[in-house]
Design a protein that fits this description.
Length: about 325
Amino acid sequence: MIFSRIHGYWATITIASILVVFQGMTGGVEAQTGAKSSVLVMLNDEGDATISRSNPIARDVIAAVQDRMSQGDFFVIDQRTLETKAGFEAQDRMPKRDLIGFALAARSLPDPSLRPRFLATISVRASLEKTSFEQIGRLRVSGDIHDVLSSRFVTDWRAAPSEFRTDTFCTQLCIENLYSDAARSSAAKVAKTLERTLSGLVDGPGSNARAGTAGGRHCSSLVTVFDIEFNSFSDKEVQKITNDMEKKFPCFVDVTSFDGSSTNKMYGYKSTAPADKIIKWITTLFYRMNLPPDDQVTITKSDGKILLEKLYD
């Protein structure tokens, strides 16, 4: 049972780490253009602090991630089907390196739809606080994304935490049921985060056209000047964002202006891409910077102006 190791008023355990192997739409032998990108979800239960893959909470997390991602632009690969075709069977408490090795080995399978391009690790941590009148449970989810094809680290990310409160009479089974509900809620947030981040890696900055050109399927012949306002960002953060927008975003043309105070800066950005694409690429960039939208930053569009506001330092 996942709470058998809890002693005293505070206890923190790692509930699970999930490996999500993402098949990017790269064309050629990787995938057919126009098909959905395929995703393989696997549980990483390495270490005694994590729950085993047979635990119902683990199944709830995986099922929720699969369900959410299958509703979007992803084809979810069934793990057991892949294991059968690859001659591999995941065991309880397998080292993470073995699962990564499985992802690498899957790239040699005859079926191109089963060859992973990206690998994302999802770590879910739980804490339980007991007071004289209530119990407070928390789930925190974070992870990394790796490019399996080039064997390189891409980015790390985190999702908004989940929390529940209950009275002191809630039994161990009651607590587990509440954690199960929280796990499903967190998994939906994780899937949403992964959708945005992975979609941006496949269909985002630098994927369709080189910066400074009008090429790429998102670019048009119409040049638009976007007034982009930065609120409460540090100078270092603004420099990182504007540098990526100019060097990595498709359809970039020129910068018309850049001025403002230490906490509020205005940036004139000229591009042939539509506003919704620029916002999508900025969203992906924020995830790469560990600034998840709606959690740490907000993005607002109004009449050619894009307001980027950091919620807290």
